[in-house]
Specification:
Blueprint lengths: L1 H26 L20 H8 L1 H4 L14 H6 L2 H10 L19 H12 L23 H11 L1 H4 L15 H5 L3 H10 L20 H13 L12 H5 L1
Length: 246
């Protein structure tokens, strides 16, 4: 009776050893991926540089140096836009412009923690010591400017680069183009007037006329003038086929 039991145990052990060898062989088989770092879930990614590259650099340029949209690492911009403003724009976007919402709460893909990482990372580019003793214009204004006064302001501070009517010159592009204005909110226009576009050679509010920075009211007025050039029904820059036949 002992001999059959011994045989059963022998064959059981042999089968177990064979199974172990088969599994080991499969783990080391050619083409099988080796062990590597675990892939982080998209909503758990909290590295600023990766988040910025994936979500912001396409418009604002690598490291926020500017592209289709303003440079987020511009010290003037970071001096006038506080954390709440940057967080609001990143979370909710800007309606009617290419700046879409990124927060999940507004239909985007990023969590509140990821938005916080972006805000803190962008703010880390600020250089507050650069503006000690400088009177900065307010980021936003509660009262609209005057478009008629804005036309005179434009002539003083902007026409030398953008032409007498804003249609562009050899020094600067058109800033009354209907498609451009249709994609820009009034706040975005104000931000550019204040911060400029140094990546494109456009000065900030202090550099249009040497020794004569724009006042807060002049900034509001020229933004009102620019907004008045915005087409009422944007989106049709060319005549329709019916109009062309007339």
């Amino acid at each position: 009776m002992n001999r059959p039991c011994a045989r059963v145990r022998f064959w059981s052990r042999l089968a177990w050893i064979a199974a172990v060898l088969v599994v080991a062989g499969c783990n080391n088989s050619p083409g099988r991926p080796g062990k590597g770092p675990e892939v982080i879930r998209p909503d758990e990614l909290l590295d600023f540089h990766t988040l910025f590259k994936q979500n912001c650099s396409g418009c604002h340029g690598p490291e926020g140096k500017g592209g289709a949209a303003i440079a987020l690492n511009d010290p003037v911009y970071l001096a006038i836009a506080d954390d709440d403003a940057i967080r609001r724009i990143a979370s909710k976007g800007v309606n009617g412009t290419p700046m879409t919402p990124f927060a999940q709460s507004a239909g985007g893909m990023l969590t509140e923690k990821q938005i916080d990482v972006l805000v803190h990372g962008i703010r880390a580019w600020a250089r507050p010591n650069q503006f000690v003793g400088v009177s900065l214009p307010p980021y936003a204004t509660e009262s609209p400017g005057d478009a008629q006064r804005g036309a005179q302001v434009y002539g003083t501070f902007c026409s030398s680069c953008h032409g007498p009517k804003g249609e562009g010159s050899g020094k600067g592009s058109s800033i009354v183009n209907g498609s451009y204005l249709a994609l820009m909110s009034n706040q975005q226009l104000r931000t550019i007037v204040i911060a400029g576009r140094p990546d494109l050679g456009a000065p900030d509010w202090r550099g249009n006329v040497p020794g004569r920075p724009m006042t807060a009211q002049e900034i509001s007025d020229v933004v009102a003038w620019l907004a008045a050039q915005r087409p009422q029904f944007p989106g049709q820059p060319y005549p329709s086929s019916d109009e062309q036949r007339r």
